[in-house]
Each structure stands twice: as C-alpha cells, then as structure tokens.
Amino acid sequence: MFKLFSGTANPALSQEVAKKMGVSLAGGEVVRFENSEIRVRISEDVKHHSCVLIQSTSNPTDTHLMELFFFCDALRRQEAREVIGVIPYFGYARQDVQHRDGECVSVNVIIKFLESIGFYKIYTVNLHDEATEGVFSIPFKNINAFPVLAQEVRSYLSHQTNLTNLTDTVSVVSPDHGGVERARKFSDVLFGHTSHTIAVVEKKRDLKQIHQSKALDLYGDVKGKIAILVDDLVTSGGTLIHAAKLCMDRGASQVLAAVVHHDFGPEAPNLIQSSSITRFITTNTIALKDEQKFEKLHEVSIAALISEEIKHLK
C-alpha cells in the first residue's frame, strides 16, 4: 500500500490525482513562521508504507524546495518504507550548465539534496533538458506531457474550418534550436505520423541580462499556415512573443502556443494577452494564481498522467 501526500505548491493538482487514484490525501501539516522558516509534520502512521509526495518547486522556488526536503525527512523519521517525489515542475532545471565562468550548476546541487535527504525515486514532467536525467543516481522518470497538449491543440483545431489535412495547414515551430526535439515529439502526436517537418526560430539570448532574447530568423515554411509554437516553459514570455511576431511577419495565418509549464513572471500574462498569439495552451504543473489568468490562456490537466505513473504502487 502507499500513502499520497501533497505539499502546498499545487494542492488542487494533488487533490485531482488523489481522486483519480481513488484515495484520500494523507495528513501533513506545514507551518510558516514570521521569520520565513517553515515546519513540516506528518500527522498519521506511515511506518512500512510507500509514500508519494506531490510538490512542484515553482515560484517561490526556494520555499517550495525546502518544504519538499522537510517532507521527505519527516516521512523518513516516521519510518516510511520509501519516499517517492513527484515534482511536476522542477525548479532550477534551466541552470544545468555553466553559461559563464564562475557560475554554479544549480540543478546538480538540487539533485544532490534530493538524493542525500533520502528520496527513493523522483518523477518530473518535461524536465528542461533530458540530459539532466544522467545526473541522478537514484531511480528517475521524466513524464512527457506533450501528448496531452497535442491532443488539446488537435481538439481546438477541429473547430477551425478547412483543417482536414493538418500537415498542409499547420506548421509546428520550435522557438529556438534547443527545443527542436520537443517540437518533434509534439508533432508526432499532433499529426499522427513522423513524416513531417518543423520550423525553427534562430534566437539569440543575452547572458548578461536575464529574460532578454531576440528572434533573428525563421527556418521553415509558415506562410498561410497556422503556426504552433511548442516549448517546455515560459517565464517572461519574450521568446514566444518574438517568435510569434516573426511567424506572422513570414505570413502565418495565426499563431498558437503549446507550453507545458507556465512559470510566469509578473508581466508575462499581460504581454502574452496583448501579443499576436491567438491561444496559449498549457498544463497545470504549476498552480495558476488569479492575477495570472487571461482570456487567451487555456489550461489542461496532467493529473491522469501522474496517476497512471504511480498506480502500480496501489
């Protein structure tokens, strides 16, 4: 038997997973003190049980990470047989290489914490770079949410006219060279075959200025087509917005965005809403605040993906 716990980062997603699994969330308490410290307490017997903890490490990333670590420690102290972490959004995943001399490789540090604190296995959803999987020395699985997004985009497009042949009327676009493989995985599901091409935006990022990038050129055909920008996450929105404008300048009839993680900065929702992007389709790996909601945004749940992965523990 297993017990399912939820951190405070995204309790709605945890509740949805629990409902699909036919279980109730186990009891845990998180206390936040005035000096910003937190305390985690497990309020039921977990001895000899496998325990699954769902906790995104989204903004505020450091706070949610500490809560994740404390939950694991508390469960281990109560003699849980094993603790499995489900981290739908893995904070610091983009800091996976030394871009400049003197920088730390932050994601490696987080992985060392997870391993040393006693997690038995980690699940994530669309980790920024699949190569990061090789850093883990404990069991690890990266769940792919692009099929869910592709199916949602296909449903949205089915309401458009003259879209009987998606290959001829739709162009999937990667907003940078690093996302080509992500765009291909998305396209395979959207089109239902692998005999397709994708377009790629050439992007230049300013490493000295955070959230600053520029779309330089577009390789591929989008003229007269619906361009679908595919990415794993968005923070400032700059990359997507610049890529969308470039697609429209090159003759696209409209631009949709399919993004797994909406790790929004404060200005991103308004910027995307006022951009040339027609529809922004994303998942609920991160809890969406009221002030982050906007008309063009459509959120689809990944609860079924998570429950499917952990149901074997039942």
Automatic annotation (TrEMBL):
<keyword id="KW-0808">Transferase</keyword>
<dbReference type="GO" id="GO:0000287">
    <property type="term" value="F:magnesium ion binding"/>
</dbReference>
<protein>
    <recommendedName>
        <fullName>ribose-phosphate diphosphokinase</fullName>
        <ecNumber>2.7.6.1</ecNumber>
    </recommendedName>
</protein>
<dbReference type="GO" id="GO:0016301">
    <property type="term" value="F:kinase activity"/>
</dbReference>
<dbReference type="GO" id="GO:0005524">
    <property type="term" value="F:ATP binding"/>
</dbReference>
<feature type="domain" description="Ribose-phosphate pyrophosphokinase N-terminal">
    <location>
        <begin position="3"/>
        <end position="118"/>
    </location>
</feature>
<keyword id="KW-0545">Nucleotide biosynthesis</keyword>
<dbReference type="InterPro" id="IPR000836">
    <property type="entry name" value="PRTase_dom"/>
</dbReference>
<dbReference type="GO" id="GO:0006164">
    <property type="term" value="P:purine nucleotide biosynthetic process"/>
</dbReference>
<keyword id="KW-0460">Magnesium</keyword>
<dbReference type="InterPro" id="IPR005946">
    <property type="entry name" value="Rib-P_diPkinase"/>
</dbReference>
<keyword id="KW-0547">Nucleotide-binding</keyword>
<dbReference type="Pfam" id="PF13793">
    <property type="entry name" value="Pribosyltran_N"/>
</dbReference>
<dbReference type="InterPro" id="IPR029099">
    <property type="entry name" value="Pribosyltran_N"/>
</dbReference>
<keyword id="KW-0479">Metal-binding</keyword>
<keyword id="KW-0418">Kinase</keyword>
<keyword id="KW-0067">ATP-binding</keyword>
<dbReference type="GO" id="GO:0002189">
    <property type="term" value="C:ribose phosphate diphosphokinase complex"/>
</dbReference>
<dbReference type="InterPro" id="IPR029057">
    <property type="entry name" value="PRTase-like"/>
</dbReference>
<dbReference type="Pfam" id="PF14572">
    <property type="entry name" value="Pribosyl_synth"/>
</dbReference>
<dbReference type="GO" id="GO:0005737">
    <property type="term" value="C:cytoplasm"/>
</dbReference>
<dbReference type="GO" id="GO:0006015">
    <property type="term" value="P:5-phosphoribose 1-diphosphate biosynthetic process"/>
</dbReference>
<dbReference type="GO" id="GO:0004749">
    <property type="term" value="F:ribose phosphate diphosphokinase activity"/>
</dbReference>
